[in-house]
Known about the structure:
alpha/beta; Rossmann fold; 2 domains; 6-stranded mixed β-sheet; 4-stranded antiparallel β-sheet; 13 helices; 23% strand
Amino acid sequence: ILDEPTAVLTPQEVDELFVMISELRNSGVSIIIITHKLDEVKAISDRVYVLRGGELVGERKTSETSIAELANLMVGRDVVLTVERKEKEAGEKKVFEVEDLRVLNSKGYPAVDGLSLNVRPGEVVGIAGVDGNGQSELAEAIVGLLPAAGGKIIHEGDDITHMSIKERMNRSISYVPSDRQKYGLVLQMTIGENIMIGNHDRAPFSTGIKLNYKYINSYAGELVDKFDIRTPDVLNPAGKLSGGNQQKVILAREFSRDPTFILVSQPTRGLDVGAIEYIHSQILAMRERNVAILLISLELEEIFALSDRILVLYKGKIVKELEPEKTSDKEVGFYMTGGKEEQRNG
């Protein structure tokens, strides 16, 4: 039984794994693969069982079905598998910059090592890398959860390296964290209270030390409708929502702050194809509004679908910058594992 076996593998490593799986199958071994990656289902399986809401909703021979049909079964409706990313010229001004940034991990070793990047208005910059190469530490340093050991973090021309988390939020910086339940929500609090987080100390969300629940719940209700959050009402605890709806609550809060820069980390982790479609459309909608977006994702398909530029992260350094239209997942995977330019050319 293999449960999401390709989650942290490069495309080359996925190919190698599938060769091994095929050899095991040909030798008479029975194999169950649990995955949400439908292209991999088509590539390696003989039969497919589709689960939705804990129930079996379909069984198909792989050769007799399509990715579109499987996606429909998973979600219960037609799904747009690839959201259109329209051609768009990014602005000239750099909204967000990181210069020679160094960040230490919990053991005191460099996790981000002399990293530099920039993001312009109306641009999605995707960071691709194998998990554990400094993604978490980079994200946490940008939003102020970890201190910088060196270098600068610059927003709209101002050095924010040593600003507090709250000061960064007040500068129209939004953050969608990689773990929605651990870092993005307070599960025991209501949807309205979670949407209010970050605005709790300002009118009309509060007056003095007293929260204005009438306004909070009214405002949250508008966002529930706008972001299609499936819930009986805004008084429902966030912990009772599905993963996709929990992520929508975070997007509703962060995207409604009128941000100029958004850091989005692993935005579709653990979500079904229907939720992924929605999340991607919302990210691209913010791009259309000229927001600068830094996307960190372990899913190369996601990086290619959303990014205007791809930066490859390896051992805390940006080792390559690529254009999605002029590269391939194999080339990105090559640099993700520390491949050198001379190795490709040689």
